[in-house]
Structure formats: structure tokens, C-alpha cells
Specification:
7-stranded mixed β-sheet; 4-stranded antiparallel β-sheet; 11 strands; 0% helix
Length: 123
């Protein structure tokens, strides 16, 4: 059983910073990629930032230069450092992982989601 557990959300004033963490646990053989999506009220879930194993990253245009994604492969953890936060960054942030698990002699590739963490940017 694989779980993605997020932490680090909360309330912050405009211009402030937050750091989100997401730790993957379970029968993980390897990780293809991990990243972050967000969903604001009344809007569709959108990609924020993603880190593919091998080093490449991509960001939504709206967060480039303000957010930084990083990974600790030894801990199966992905981070999202969010600086210069704006009210429009308010959303539930979801961790996403494309993981390979192993069961006996079989390998399975699947996408997993965390439960979400609320980020609210308001004065």
C-alpha cells in the first residue's frame, strides 16, 4: 500500500512564504516523477510544478520565479518552496507521484495522490 502524505499548508499573508512537503511510503520500487497540483474553489485542478527523475522540472507560468520544487530521493519526498505568495495562489495543493511498486516478480506503474493541504493567502 502506497501513501502520499502532505504537510506544510496554512494561512499566510500576501508576499509571504510557505514550504510544502510530501512523503511517499509503502512498497515503492522507484519513482518516475513527483509533483504538485492545486485546485481553487470552482476551478479545475491544475499543475503547479513537477519533478521528473533524472532532474528535469516544469512549472506553471503563473508560479515561475516564485515557486521551487525539489526532491530528497533518499526519503522519497518532494518539496514545494513557495515565495512571494499571492491571493490567487489560494487553493488546496495535492501531491502527485508516478511510482513503480513491486509485488513478487511483478512491477506496477501507477499514479498516486495525496489527500491535499489547504494554502490560504490573505491579509
Amino acid at each position: 500500500q502506497v501513501q502520499l502524505v502532505e504537510s506544510g499548508g496554512g494561512l499566510v499573508q500576501p508576499g509571504g512564504s510557505l514550504r510544502l512537503s510530501c512523503a511517499a511510503s509503502g512498497s515503492i520500487f522507484s519513482i518516475n516523477g513527483m509533483g504538485w497540483y492545486r485546485q481553487a474553489p470552482g476551478k479545475e485542478r491544475e499543475l503547479v510544478a513537477y519533478s521528473i527523475s533524472g532532474g528535469s522540472t516544469n512549472y506553471a507560468d503563473s508560479v515561475k520565479g516564485r515557486f521551487t520544487i525539489s526532491r530528497d530521493n533518499a526519503k522519497n519526498t518532494v518539496y514545494l518552496q513557495m515565495n512571494s505568495l499571492k491571493p490567487e495562489d489560494t487553493a488546496v495543493y495535492y501531491c502527485n507521484g508516478n511510482l513503480i511498486t513491486k509485488s513478487g516478480t511483478y512491477y506496477y506503474t501507477r499514479t498516486y495522490w495525496g489527500q491535499g493541504t489547504q494554502v490560504t493567502v490573505s491579509s
